Every structure is written in structure tokens, then in C-alpha cells.
Amino acid sequence: MSIESCDVLVVGGGPVGLALAGDLGRRGVGCVVIDAKTGFHEHPRATCLGPRSMEIFRSWGIVDRVLDAAVPEDFRMDVSFVDDLAGEEVLRLRYPTIAEMRRRDAAILREFPQLHWSRYAKVVVGQHRLEPVLHAFAVAQPSVSHRPGHEFVGHAETADGIVAVVRDMSGAERRIAARYLVGCDGGRSAVRRAMGVRMGGTGSVGASVNVFFRCPGLLRAAGRESAMLFWIMRKGANGAILAIDGRDEWVFSRHLMPDETEGTHDPAAMVGRAIGCDIPFEIVSWWPWTPRELVAGSYRVGRALLAGDAAHLMSPTGGYGLNTGLGDAVNLAWKLAAVVRGWAPPELLDTYGPERRPIVERSAAEATDNRRYIRGVLLAGQRLDEEPAGRAEALDAIARSRAGHGKHFDAMGLYLGDRYDASSIVIDDGTPAPRWDAEVYEPSCKPGGRLPLVWDEQGGTLHDRCGDWFSVITSEPAGAAALVRAFEARGTIVRIVHVSPAVAARLGGRHLIVRPDGFIAWRSAIPPSDGTAIIRRLLAEDTAPPSAERPFRSSALSAGSS
Fold first, then answer.
1. Which of 164, 265, 301, 355 is deepest in the core (most CB within 10 A)?
2. How far apart are CA 54 and CA 415, in angstroms?
3. Which residue numbers delimit the FAD-binding domain (predicted)?
4. Which CATH fold would you assign to the domain 417-538?
5. Best CA proximity match to 229, nearest among 132, 123, 121
6. CATH superfamily of 3-69+120-198+295-364
């Protein structure tokens, strides 16, 4: 049996596996991706990309390609509640189009203040359109190799890595030796089973049937303004029609009510009832599925790790699943790269699970809560056919539901507000943690959170100025010299980002260290007394906190500071 070697073996060539491989590759890590599929997914599957994911794609230089794969620039990203698609619209929630995100003039920022927090809002891109973009990104890295048509059979751990057995479509087996193995192979993960890790949580939070269909001219025939999502209130058709490409491709996600079962439904009849007008359409595929709220009991066993759906499953209500998986990928990639390149000890990987699991558990719980809430709205909407009293009561209930939809359709706090406050490689500065709310993001430069969107006097952002590895943001470069020397002494790549005193004041400190994943690891108002001790802590060589510096003042950032 032949054997080849690499630094990291990634099992699973979906969005998370390709993203992880691409990020590893751009950091010089040798990576092999194996995938049981021979091509890309044919179904949209995951469809929603949140603002943090779009920021990640921007840092990789592929955001424009992702946007090109999305709905047209002027297609409305609204959420509409209707009898059926051709019927009465009873509620519409407005969100920015891609064109408005790009333009971000004063009028747009007034209408959509969430764009103060990120350049991006939620974007719809079908997984079947996203995967080719991420595949091109991954295989463009010289150190990444992609092997479609290869399934993972098992692995054994050795003194300095793992040896995995993989099988191609002919049945031939081969061995791949790697320093680390990462399972990104979905909810039925073979890697997770091989690790002996079980999932915990709720095995079912509802029942649904998804229908992927093509229907050119659908909105014109229905007389409907564009929207990302149309919630269908009509009894017997409760669910949502999601725009995939804004032209021909759509997904109808039928939410089954308590007295319904998936086996009693004909997909064409379901779609026809939801549309509500006479127009031909083509069923591409359909599949029953059960939304779940499950999280892996461990993210790491020895040299094997999990990411994406292999580590967690959640209801799609909110669109958190893929975004959470991409968060896993960027958290894990820099840590694997730092260990492989000899900049950090293997203990750095011990921080991956403790940082990500609380985020995942909260996101999964919020997604389940969203599903409960929308189910109540759908149940109320079933009375729209009951003229006149029942319809009036249903219209009132749907109108009153507006206040509860924020975290389902515009969860900026959940997308941008991840925090690693309890992490052993984040140095607390003693300031209060920002208030967390799923809908509202509170910008803060307290260590443990994402570097907020901060603009400098030249019209650029600190996001764009930070490097691929560690970044030292400072208004006093001479004072930050000890940090720079400490990074350089161990061969770690670091970028100096010089800011004005005015920008530093908004950051709440003259010196900040931003990790490779864009999270703030340390902040100080004075030059550090021991740069080496700080770097050792950030790379998991020393879990004892460095000696205390001057107390920090709270960040002056606010929603209008960008």
C-alpha cells in the first residue's frame, strides 16, 4: 500500500474543509483534502453568509468572487411574509442589497445602521455556487492538494502524527501520513466516529421537506417585489421560498406542522400551492430532513480534530451553521500553522475547543429558538383563510411578530459578537465585557473579541491594514518595539500597524495585538514591560498572566464610530 505525507489531512471538501485548506495553504502548510464526492454539491444546501464570513473572504482576497456568485447586486435582501407568493404581503422587513452595501453612503448608513459595524450584511450564496469559489481559492495555494472521489476509512496515531487509510472509487486503498487530521466531513462524520466522539444535545427540533426548483420569471408572474426570503403563511404550504440566484433558482423549505408527516407530501404540489399562480417550474431535487441541535463532546482527540458540521449541527433558522463552521476554520488554521511551523507548542491546539464550543452552543440554541418563534408565526398565519375575524387576528399576530424577528434575519450581534474572554491565550485588561445581544453588536476593543470596523483618517480600515499573521496596532512604534522584537526573535511574522493618537483613543489603548484570525489578544495604554512574556502567553507557552500593566480605559467605539 503506497504512502504519502503532508502536514495536515483534511477530510471533507465542502465549504468548511476547503476554507480550512485554503487558509492553511496561504500560511505555507502542506495540506491534502480528500472528499468522497467527485464534484461539487448540486443542491444549494447552506445558503446564508453573515458579515463576519464576508470579512474573512475579504481578507483572503476572494470577496468579490463570492459576491459574483450571489444574487444580483440590486436584488432586495428583504424578508417578506405573504399568503402565498402571488397573494397579499402582510409584512416586509427591509435589509440592504449588495449594491447598497458597496455604496454605503450617508443615506444608506442612516437606513441600515448595522453597516456601521461591518462593511457587509447577510448575503445569499447557494453552497453549489460557493464551493467552486472556495475550491479555486484552496487549490491556488501551492501547498494544497485536492483528491475528490476518496473516502476516509480510518486512522492510527503515531509518535509524531497520524496515518490514515483512504479508499478511491475503484476500491484501492492508500495511506496518508500527516501531522494532524481534521474532520470536516459533515454531520455523519467518519472522522468523528473514528475519534470515538459522541454528539450531545437535541436530536430533533422539527421536521421539514426542502424542494430545489427552477422557475424563470417567478417574481414577475407573481407580481412580487424581490426579497431574499418569502415566508408562506397559507395553510398546507407553511414554509419559506428562498431566492438562490435571484433569477431562476429557488428553494422551498416546507415546515411541517405537528399533524403532518414528510411522507404525505408531493413536492410539486407543495411548490405549486406555495407559489399560488399558474407558472411552469422544474423540480431539480427534494429531500426530507430533520433540524437538530447537536454539539460534539470534544473537538480534539490526540492529533485528530473536528470542524464545521462534523463538530456541530443546528437548525438553519438564522443561517448560523455555515458561518459557525467558517469561524471554526479560521480559529483552527492559524493555530495548526503556528504549531507546524514551530512557532508554538502543540498545547496551542488545546485552546481550539474551549474557544469555539461556547460560541457554537449559543448559536445552536439561538437557531432552535428562532425555529420555535417562526413556527408560532406560521401557526398564526394558518388563520388567514378564516374570514373575517380569524384573518384579522392572524394579521395582527404577524404584525406584532416584527419585534422578535431581528436575531433570526439580522443577527449582527451573533455574527460579530463572538468573544473568547475565558481563553488561556487572551490577556484580560480588566475592563468590563461588552453587552452581548444576538441582534445588536456592541463594538469593543477589549481583548477576546473581533477587532471592530475602525476607519483611519485616510479612509481605510484597520481590518484591511492588519496582516495575515499577528498585527501590532500602535500609536507609539518605539513603545511597541519590545513586542516586535519578541515576535521576530522566534521567527513569527508580525505586521506593525501605525495609527494616530486619535484612532488609538478610540481603540482604548496605544498598543494592541491582533491575532491571525482577527481577534484582539492584548491591549495596553503603556509600552509593555516584558514583550517575551506576552508572546509566550499568546502562543500557549505560558498560561500564567504577565505582570499587570496600567489599568485600561474602556473603548470609545460606538455604533456610529465607523
1. 355
2. 11
3. 6-363
4. Glutaredoxin (3.40.30)
5. 123
6. FAD/NAD(P)-binding domain (3.50.50.60)
